[in-house]
Design brief:
The complex is a heterodimer of chains A (about 110) and B (about 120). By secondary structure, chain A is an all-beta fold. In chain A, about 0% of the residues lie in helices and about 55% in strands. Chain A contains no helices and eleven strands. In chain A, strand 9 (about 85-90) and strand 10 (about 100) form a beta hairpin. Chain A is globular and about 45 Å long. Chain B has about 120 residues and is mainly beta. Chain B is built from no helices and eleven strands. Chain B has strands at about 5, 10-15, 20-25, 30-35, 45-50, 55, 65, 75-80, 85-95, 105, 110-115. In chain B, the strands form two sheets. In chain B, strands 2, 4, 5, 6, 9, 10 and 11 form a seven-stranded mixed sheet that branches. Chain B has a four-stranded antiparallel sheet with strand order 1-3-8-7, with no helix packed on it. Chain B starts with a strand and ends with a strand. The chains are: A mainly beta (about 110), B mainly beta (about 120). The interface of A and B includes residues 46, 96, 100 and 103 of A.
Chain lengths: ~110, ~120
């Protein structure tokens, strides 16, 4: 089983749609969780951290479910510019080592 | 203008040659990382370094070597022992203890192609 698993997609949605991605992780002792965004042929960039209580940043909402060992990302009112690959990232222990999922590709169509 | 620079952006190598990818940062971050990304896949950790003169193997270190003689620099050498080196290589930094524990910063990457 992979340490961090994501549905590869692609998710093909119309503008204005709401879309949700899930990510599961295998190590129950994982401490920190993040969503990164990666545009085609570019480097990943932090989208948002994921806190135990859940957090929201504009149209984006991230949630953590420790009992079921998954995190989610909800995007409301999708824009064309949201088209990208979304990477789920987990810090497994107290080291500085991050584990990346393989990413979920989102395509937002006009 | 703070950041991470990687050079070159594109690199072509003949089979059997060693090549070195440069990564320099002026963010004063303690930790530095090298990842490899293949098409349609996530990032896989090659090596990382938490402090100067110390580094650890990641998940796919075979065929690669690194050094960390200065805090600002973490070059990666792709040796001829790496059987399938064609990939997108990303260097990243992390502030470390006492800094924000929220973000790993990435350089723009180097695309290596073996001819």
């Amino acid at each position: 089983r992979k340490e961090v698993e994501q549905d590869p997609g692609p998710f093909n949605v119309p503008e204005g749609a709401t879309v949700a991605f899930n990510c599961t992780y295998s190590n129950s002792a994982s401490q920190s969780f993040f969503w990164y965004r990666q545009d085609c042929r570019k480097e990943p960039k932090l989208l948002m951290s994921v806190y135990s209580s859940g957090n929201e940043d504009g149209r984006f909402t991230a949630q953590l479910n420790r009992a079921s060992q998954y995190i989610s990302l909800l995007i409301r009112d999708s824009k064309l510019s949201d088209s990208a690959t979304y990477l789920c990232v987990v810090n497994m222990d107290s080291s500085y080592k991050l584990i990346f999922g393989s990413g979920t590709r989102l395509l937002v169509r006009p | 203008d703070g950041g991470i620079t990687q050079s070159p952006k594109y690199l072509f190598r003949k089979e059997g040659q060693n090549v070195t990818l440069s990564c320099e940062q002026n963010l004063n971050h303690d930790a530095m990382y090298w990842y490899r990304q293949d098409p349609g896949q996530g990032l896989r950790l090659i090596y990382y370094s938490q402090i100067v003169n110390d580094f650890q193997k990641g998940d796919i270190a075979e065929g690669y070597s690194v050094s960390r003689e200065k805090k600002e620099s973490f070059p990666l050498t792709v040796t001829s022992a790496q059987k399938n080196p064609t990939a997108f290589y990303l260097c990243a930094t992390f502030p470390g203890a006492g800094g924000s524990y929220n973000e790993q910063f990435f350089g723009p990457g180097t695309r290596l192609t073996v001819l």
